[in-house]
Structures are given as C-alpha cells and as structure tokens.
Amino acid sequence: MRYEQLQWQEQMKIQVDFNHMMTEFIGEEEGFTREHIEALAGKIKDSHQRMLKKSGSGWLEWRKLPMNQEEVVTKIVRTAEEIRSRAEAFVVLGIGGSALGPLAVQTALNHLHYNELPTERRGGPRFYVLDNVDPERVAALFDIIDPAKTIFNVISKSGSTSETMAQFMIVFNLLREKIGSDYAKNIIATTDAEKGNLVKMAREEGYTTFTIPAGVGGRFSELSPVGLLPAAVCGIDIRELLAGAAYMDKLCQQEDVFRNPAYMLGVLQYLAMRRGKNISVMMPYTDALKYFADWYAQLWAESLGKRTDNNGEDVFAGQTPVKALGTTDQHSQVQLYVEGPFDKVVTFLGVGCYRQEVTIPKVFEDLAGIAFLGGHTLGQLIKAEQLATEYALMKAQRLNFTVTLPEINAFTVGQLIQLLEIQTAFVGELLDINAFDQPGVEEGKNATYALLGRPGYESKKQELETRPLKKSEYIL
Amino acid sequence: MRYEQLQWQEQMKIQVDFNHMMTEFIGEEEGFTREHIEALAGKIKDSHQRMLKKSGSGWLEWRKLPMNQEEVVTKIVRTAEEIRSRAEAFVVLGIGGSALGPLAVQTALNHLHYNELPTERRGGPRFYVLDNVDPERVAALFDIIDPAKTIFNVISKSGSTSETMAQFMIVFNLLREKIGSDYAKNIIATTDAEKGNLVKMAREEGYTTFTIPAGVGGRFSELSPVGLLPAAVCGIDIRELLAGAAYMDKLCQQEDVFRNPAYMLGVLQYLAMRRGKNISVMMPYTDALKYFADWYAQLWAESLGKRTDNNGEDVFAGQTPVKALGTTDQHSQVQLYVEGPFDKVVTFLGVGCYRQEVTIPKVFEDLAGIAFLGGHTLGQLIKAEQLATEYALMKAQRLNFTVTLPEINAFTVGQLIQLLEIQTAFVGELLDINAFDQPGVEEGKNATYALLGRPGYESKKQELETRPLKKSEYIL
To answer: Which terms in the GO cellular component ontology are assigned (chains A, B) (predicted)?
Structure first.
C-alpha cells in the first residue's frame, strides 16, 4: 500500500471517545474508573480467547468477510453494472438483517433523496427495501414501480422466512404474468449455498444467485452479498467498504482493551449493564447515519437479549436499544435523557466534516433571538448542538460515548460496521451468552404457522384454539 | 347527527384491550388485578379533578382543539386549496411536535409513496418535513425542489427555535434571490399570536399566518394549525380528524377508569412504572402508523421525563419510549422482548381492516416450507403474526396492550391522537409532575447559544471554555 493511502486511512480512523463514561467527568456515583476496567482483566482475557476459538468454529465467519471475498466481489460488481444499465428500480425482498444493513449503507453513502433524483444524476436504479407484509405497503410499492423494469433481490438464508417468501411468491407470479418466460432475469436470489427452498428454486428456475456463507447470521451479514449487491447496484464502492472493515478488524484484534476500540465500547457497556443501565441509545448527529441506529438496534437486541447463559441458567440478559437522531430528537427525547431515570447509556455518532455545507445568511440582524445564527454554517450549528447535548448529559451525570467518523464515506462506514459487530459479539462473551442464535422468536413463528394452517403445526393450532378467551370487560 | 353516522362512528371506535396486562393472562408475578386498579381510586379521582381544573387554567387548551376551531378550519381549508392549485412542493420547517405530528398524520392517511406518485394521482404538492439542520440533508432537499414553486410553512411557537429559524433564514434569502419581491407568497408562518420573532416578521413581511393558541405546547399541537394545515394541503379531511378527536375526548371525560380508555391505559402504565418497567414500546402492525410511534415517543418522553415532582422533590421520573414496527421488528426486537429483562410494556397498534389487500398466489405447492402461504392474503399473514407475537409475549409473561383501529382513516387517527394525549397528561397527574414543561433542554440550548456566540451568554461561554479537557487516553 502506498504511503499516501496509509496516511489517508489513518486520517479516516473512527474515534471512540469514552471520557464521559469516566468518573472524572460523570462523577463517582455514575462514572467508571480505570480500576473498574482493570478488575475485569481475567474476564476480558477469557472472552478474547473465546472469540479467537469461535473464529474457527463457524460462528464468527462474518469477521473474515472483509478479507476473503475477492472473487465474490468481482461477480457482484459485474452483476451490479449490468443491473445499473438496464433496471429502473431495484427492490430488496428481505426482513431483519437482510433489510436493515442495505438500508443503513444506502442512506449513509448515497444522496438523502436518492430515489427522487433525476435518472441521469442517480446513475442507477431507484432503490427500495420491502421489509414488511403490510398489504397497504406492498400495494403502494407496486403503484410506483414497473415490475418488468425492476430487479427483485430476494434475500433469505433459510428460504423459509414467511414474510420474504410471501412477497417473493407475489412477485414471482406477477413477473410471469407481465413478462412471460423471461421473468427469471428480473430475479436475483441471495441465500444459503445448499440448504432451503430458495436455493432449490433458484437452481431450477435459473436465477442469478449469491451465497450467504455458513457462519454468517442475518444480523452479521451486511458485508456478505446480502449487503454488497444492493450497495454496488446503487453505485457504492464496496471494495472501500470492505477495506474499512478490514482496517477496523485489525485494530480490534488487539487483546489490550485500552487499545481495542470494540472491546472498550463493549467492556464499558457491560459495566453499565451490570449497574442496571438497561437502555442503550444510539444518537447519530447526521441523517446519513439514521438507519445505522436501526441496524444496530437489531444487532444489539437480538444478539444480547437472551433468557439463558451458556450454562443454561436463567439470566434474562439484554439491553434495549433506542434509536434517536440529533438534533431532531433533542426536541423529543433529550428532556428524558437529562432529567429521567439513570437507566441508560447514550452513544453519539458524530461526523468530523460534513460532505456538504450550507451557510446561514446574515438576515434579520435586528432580532436578537436569531441574529447570532447569521454567518455560521449549518455544520457549525449541528456540531455546537451535539457538543452542547454531550455537555448537558455530562453535567447531569449521564453516561455517554462519542464515536466520530472523520467523514462519512465507504471506508469509515465499513469500519463502523465491523466495530459494532465485534463489540456486540464481545459483550456476548462477557455476558457468557450465545450472541448468535434467536430461540425466542420460535414461539411466535410456530403460532403464525399454526394460525395459517401449515401442515405439521396441528398441535400448536389446538393449543391456540383452546387458549383462555380474552375477557370483554378488559376491552374498552 | 344522523343515525347512520352515529352508527358508523360507533363501528369506528378504537378498542383498547388490556387483557395481557392482567394476572389471568400474564400470571400473578407480572400481571395486575382489578384490585390493583381499584386501590388507586383516590389517586385517580384526584388526578381527574386536577385535569378538570387545569383545563381552565391554560395548560390543557389542546383538549378543546377538536371542538373550538370552526373558523380556523375554514381558513385552513381555503388556504390549502389555494396551495394545492399552485404549488409543486410543500415543506414544513419545524422540529419536535411541529414535525412529528404532521409526519405521523401524513403517513397514516396518504399513500405510502405519496411523493413518488404522478402529480395527477397525488392531487396536491409533494410533502417534506425538514426537521434537522444537517447540512447534507438540507442541501439534498434543495436538489429536488424548485423553491419558486414551493410553499414553506415555518412553524415555531416562540419564533426562536434555532434549528427552525436557521432553516428559515436560509429559505428567506433563497426565495428573495429567486423570486424577488413576491417571495412572501411562498411563506406561511405558524406561530404564537403575539409573542416572538416569527409573528413580528410575519406582520412586517405580510406572510399568511396561523396561530398556535395559548396553552397548546409543541407536543400537544397536532390538532392545531400546526398539524391541520399540512394535512389539509395533502388532501386529508381535517374535519373528520377533529371529529374523531372530539368523539374520543367525550369517552375520556368519564371519571370511571373502567369506562375511560385513556385513563385505563394510563393507570396500567403507571402501575407498571411503579414496578420498575422503565421502557414503553409502541409497535404498530402497519407501516401507516410507523411515524405515530415517533410522535408518541416525543409526547411520552418529554412529558413524563422529569427530575422533580410538583413539590420540587427529586423523582427522576419517566419511561423510555421505544418505536418498533410489526412484522419488521419481529426480526429485530422480539427476541429481546420475549427473553430479555422484564422491564417493558409493549403496546401493539393493530388494524381491523387494511385499506388494500394482496393475495399470495398458490405457487411452489411442492415446497412445504412455503406452500401453506399460498391462498392467504397479506392481511391474514400480518394479522396472524401480530396475534402470534402477542401470544408469545403473553406466554413469556410480558405485559402488553393491544390498541385496535377498526380501519385507518381520519376519524380513527383523530381518536388515536386525543387518546394518547389524554393518557399522557393523566399519567403526569398520577406521577404528580408537570407534564407540560421541558426544563431539561435548557442547559443544551444555552450551551449552543454560548458556542455560537449569542450575546448575553458570555458566562456560559466562559464556563464551557474552562471545562475540564477530555483526556486523550480515553479516546481510541
């Protein structure tokens, strides 16, 4: 790598600032000390060792995605170019990680009104993620796209996600009606290499197919073809995304928590959880990262929200993620954060340098309440507000981190993904739980199957039909 | 009122189902009983009396909005018609309640891809809410609108909201550049009747102006011109919205908690808060109500998140609102809700009958994992999933409500607004706090003023400049 490039990467390194987690700033009652962290040395070492061990055992394959996909990336880029040249719209059919990752990256790295730009300025198809089965939403989408000129990327590892497959069945039928035997050209499947309905269909019907590698769970799949294809179709430099993730991964391989940003974020959140802080707020000060808070909410909630630990003991672990947006939610949530219960950790996501700037003109100079704004830029205003909010929280002794991206670009966004994924997995180890499964959603899935009459779910149906009836006196 | 109309209103009544808050369903440890509620009789009576008393004193004027705006509504409808005939875009400049209410109502009652519909189908201007000062976001909006053909509705009661006024200064300058002396025709101000910069400007410059009545705080202002003008511009029947709110208000005037849906929702949330449930999740099973969860998040957080009670004692009250969306967040949050800490109350927002329906075709009949979906509608699927999730939460002994709108229309949305506002105010009384102020945001505001050099904030500036420096060892 050239010296200039290394230097640029260094400049683009994400900063994790945990000053406002520490007693010097937050006070003794709420803050933490170096000693609190050092007292966990054994646990940190253990967790680090377990991470290393798992990395070969199939659960941490997502960590290698930034390093082992050269061939896949070439195929993705080629496919994306072809789609960009012929499609008017690109629709992801997916839910959970298959939707949240693509949405987060698209919003971070493309124009904030991308779909409303003129075609020539956009340079690629309009982009939609259909991550619900609300009939009004699905019907609304079909009002604004022409299926014949749309590529549908159906994403489901198992090929049995009810919401995604229901959407796919509708799209499949519609495409056959509209464009006949050529319909398969408008479908791309992203799924498991071997198992499930979707890979079976894809083979039989001849869809272009991408593989979600083994050991890459839905919420850790953004840097697999799940996220890379949609990003590339929208013109995002996916090699830079992966380079950023690889750069951060290296930083986070260090055992020393005082050098490893993911571990430090994780250890301090873990300490806060142990003190009963059951809420984790992510508050970006940029619309571009708004959907990163959604992506992180799944990662954090589904990975750490677990009834039992690795020994099978009931622990009812988890911290509830909350998505906020600065400055917007200063006018919605900050009153609560400053004055309410001492039950949360706030993570600010800041930006060093915004990609665009707008100056507030010097007008209404005789109105003292607003005249001082004139001459400043919006970038100065939003940064002052972020700093002021951090300061207000600190004064009120409220725990908060600040994670700063020097600029929003593919390299820093890649770093952010890897940073937060490693943090989450590491906290799973500290909590001694399995961060990679989701047993708690089975009950709801099975009840849905039963309600819709899926064969094999008769006893669950029986259970549902004989459940205690709701009391009408409890309905107003 | 005609008999048919009364009957229709009755059919359109929102249902509040609290079965899954009660011991019969949730078990003795987590559930509540009739006795728990009855034990609060004195407190409920007191709170009811205080609500009545406040209603004359200037804090509860928002409760009368559904009943006392005939004249204003006529002016709004006339103005909206004129705008619909000449504008290509309508942009709200506002933040907090001025943004969240208009967004929630627009998303609920208009097409889910409203801005992307062809003009003739939309019948009115495209609609945007600029509720942040992120320069990238502001610049992005100017890429897709033509200011000369856009009406800007600047909303700020005080006329000194920094974010809104900064936007306005930019727009003001831009309009003068683009269309010269006629620029005032593209501006509508919604503000206080007498006080503040904005009403002063509006008079001097001759903007069309609407008034936010006294006693109507930002988060309670959706049914004032703040929300009614944007709604009317987008073709929403604001008289029906108000009729729905009036209908619900009447139901919620009853002192008997077993007849008053807002009081019952409030009392049970209050009981849950007393047991340490510090998180309130709102989870609509419809994209149309997605932004209602955002609107509610402000209402709930800012009203109830208070350091001191009415006697000035430290209470650090508040419950953190969380926005979720069914079915989408079943694949993100439900794992945590079912298996994590017993720290939350979930409120499902359901729909009796979706306004559109899509049938899943009978295809892939040889694939057992998905064939059962064929022949069902998406409405059946999403409702089965809602029921299954409620059921799974109940089985895991997790407190949950279900609030059902028989259909989403202006009448039911009006009901929902009034229901949740009254619930919030009532919980404020139960907690013995002031639900109508927001002292906790002052520190951040003042620090922002100081950082931007506003005259009069020199000592705050001094304070900021001499604050302890962050330690570089706490930055990774």
So the answer is: cytosol
